[in-house]
Amino acid sequence: MKILSVVGARPNFMKLASIDKAIKKHNSQENKKTIEHVIVHTGQHYDERMSVCFFDELEIPRPNTNLEVGSSSHAAQTAQIMELFEPVLLNEKPDVLLVVGDVNSTIATTLVASKIEYNDSDKRRPLIVHVEAGLRSYDKDMPEEVNRILTDNLSDILFTTEETALENLTKEGFSPDRVQFVGNTMIDTLISNKDKALRLNALSNILENDASLKGSGSDIAAKLQAGAPYGVVTLHRPSNVDDADSLGALVECLNKISSKLTLIFPLHPRTRNKLENFNLYDSLSENQNIILTKPAGYLEFLSLLISSALVLTDSGGIQEETTYLKVPCVTLRENTERPVTVKMGTNYLVGTDTSNILETALSIIDGKGKEGEIPPLWDGNAGARIVDILMNIVQEGR
Ligand code: UD1
Question: How far does the centroid of ligand 1 lie from the alpha carbon of residue 46, in Å?
Answer without folding.
Answer: 9
